[in-house]
Amino acid sequence: MRISRKWLSQYMDVSAYSIQELADKITSAGLEVEGIEYLSQGTNLTIGYVESCENHPDSDHLHITKVNVGDEILDIVCGAPNVAAGQKVIVAKAGAKLPGGEIKKGVIRGQVSNGMICSLLELGVDPHMLNDEQKSGIEILDEDAPIGHDNPRAYLGLDDEILDIGLTPNRSDCLAAFSMALEAGAILKQDVKLPEFDGASHTGGPTTLKVTSTTDKCPLFLGKVVGSITIKESPKWMKELLLASGMNSINNVVDISNIVMLETGQPMHFYDMDAIPNHEITVKDGYEEGYTALDGVEYQLKPEDIVITNQNKPIGIAGVMGGDDSKILDTTRGLIIECASFDHVSIRNTARRLSLSTESSVRYQKGIEPLAAKKALDRAVQLLIEYADAKDLEETVVYGNPEYVPAKISCTLEDMNSRLGTDFTQEEVFEVFARLHFEPVYENGIYTVTIPSFRTDIEGKADLSEEVIRLLGYDRLPSTLPLMEMTEGKLDYKQKTIRTTRNFFCSQGLQDSITYTLISTEKKDNAILSCGDAIELSIPMSEERRWIRTSVLPSLIDVVSYNHARTIKDINVFEISDVASVQGAKTHFAFVLSGSLQQNRWTGYNLPSDFYTAKGLVDALLDNLGIVESRVTYKENKKDTTHFHPYRSAEVYVGKDLIGFVGQIHPVYGKAVSAKNVIMAEFDLDTIIEIKKSKIKYVPVSKFPGVSRDLAFVVDRNLPVEKIVNIIKKQGRVNKEMIIRGVEVFDIYQGEHVQPNEKSVALSVTFQSDTHTLKDDEVNTVFDNILKAIQKECNATLRS
User: Fold this and answer.
1) Of 103, 400, 405, 481, which one has the greatest count of Cβ atoms within 10 A?
2) pTM for this one?
3) Mind listing the pLDDT tens digit for each residue in 68-79?
4) Running DSSP on this structure, what letter comes out for residue 700?
């Protein structure tokens, strides 16, 4: 919000305050002044008359001028291409201080120069407010400019100071200059006198104007025909206020629509009456076509956009920008005024999609007070009559219900002091409510206030307390130390598990990654181990950030794809992140492996990033978390064969709980995401945390030697080796003691001497007892039982 000293001075006396003091007081009341700007700067300036202008003898672009500044004639060397005799100009005398530095007397190529003829750029005027001619040369003043006037900045209306106020989301009312003036008056304890215009639009004869809406996105529309106006230059005060707000003056009628919007916060639009000959306006949506707006650019309308139409043809993009075919021209003889309320979400979506952040769209998005449309129409009619010779007005046409009932809130002094921890008196609180125009009534110890229509942020007693403390000063709060219980700073179980998981992966050579939580529709549809139905943002930053992710892997795969595209093949990454869905939030971890996980070229050591490496990582991590290998089961992946290779991936269970997937990426999916042949996994860490962990038991190391036996079987190719291992372990008891201490698969062979539908599995079994040295007959008995069980249950053939 930009508001200037001159604007505030129209409504109250602020002469006692410097611009910095105003900024400090407004900031202390909760509206932070983010910056102070000056329309122009410069000292020791005057208005001069160029009596003569000759070319410099030693330069092809300099001029020697004699400038009459009233009390003397100065010789000034000027380099501006547009300087000429007979002009009235801005002169900076010797000693003048400008934004670019101090002006001094000097000699320029042998010619004395006693000052400088200035352009507005040299006075610090915003370049965006200047045309090309003003930027390239000196400023040429009107013929009636008084020679010797010692304040040319004031003559041009460029002596204003501007406060740039950062508004909190709940104070959109201060986007209106009238509301900001009332706020400043309350802060400064000044009487505020706003223009009187209530009911100014309640005039006019019978009308033929028809206004309606076919969409519920337009609950209110006020329309009025002004049959006759005069297009001319705006008054000086209006041009100065527009300039201070960052707007250029166009003509009196267009400027009135802009000044009313800035004053009341209500955007409005003036249509050329001749462009709507049948005097019919309908607000609609559902259009999908190109439309040329006021800026001359064609925009593509979508069905969700709100459109102002006439005879089923768009004449404006509601709340954003009017149309090129109905704009005000120098030939305009009459107006149709639009003052309406539109759905703020729809306006925001339209403005963002079209990249049209206009003053109107910003105000609609932030919210407009209920009576803003009525106030704006009254003020516009008043100004049109005064400055545009408005005549032949017709009665106002209303669509919707403009009725408004002000809210009333009651509270007690004890409530506020108890909430704030203060000792404010009844008189202090009453004065604050009066300054805020809350019309307070105090009876029987209860304040009853009537909330003005523009204070839509005041909803309850807590809001009243906030108003009191911010105006009386936060320094009135007593100083107290916070009362906090002594607590032990430590990690909870989930935090410990996350830290253990992160440290484990880092120790194995994987790199910790952080990817975006917000994802595209494509990534949402490719969720792996999804935690539920994805949540869509109502107003996403872009299509790439539309959904809150339910899975980590699609984002993590992008990291690998990005590195592969830059010839980095050994890329092994993991991520631990929260994921969220309509059903709730969870914590997942995922990893992606490619190339080599560990490598030492000197020793020739290489650990490939393959399925077995990934399985080993999972087993080792679960063991670190207290879940022993015997509780973990890898089953054929039948749940997700879209993203995982159907024959090179597995579902991972602990007991009956599915905790994740691990395996090679599906070739089709890998090609689509430019990450071929990578190994990936995603796990539900919350499910792992909820699993009951095994207690750690300490047992002495056996004192007796162990015995190893190797055996090899030919079995059906599709038989899981895990089944063979489990059978072996079941046969390992001697006198109730488990003597099988380890089963290791050290070879699987398919090829020559083995049928195509079979495979050879070689295992090494370790036997050991804690009570005695095993005898050959004990080992042989168990070994024979193993052979018989495998041959029977697996239809296996012992290889010789």
Assistant:
1) 103
2) 0.69
3) 999 999 999 999
4) P
